[in-house]
Specification:
Blueprint lengths: L1 H41 L3 H8 L2 H12 L4
Length: 71
């Protein structure tokens, strides 16, 4: 039974590490896309940016940028 538990633990550790590493890759990819989107928004006409800043979408956008350390 000891070997069975050790085997299960090793499998769990392997999958935990794999999932954790996958999450890091996805995190970096999302961060890159958000940074690109932020750069595109910065190129919009000032009038459009002012309209966007007044929306609920902008509050959510800022919250997500903060979460990913981009603001």
């Amino acid at each position: 039974i000891f070997y069975a538990l050790a085997f299960i633990y090793i499998l769990w550790a392997f999958f935990y590490i794999k999932i954790r590493n996958t999450h890091k890759v996805e995190y970096q990819e999302v961060k890159k896309v958000l940074k690109t989107m932020d750069e595109f928004l910065g190129k919009l006409p000032e009038e459009d940016v002012k309209k966007f800043v007044k929306t609920e979408d902008h509050r959510l956008y800022k919250k997500i940028l903060n979460k990913y350390g981009l603001r």
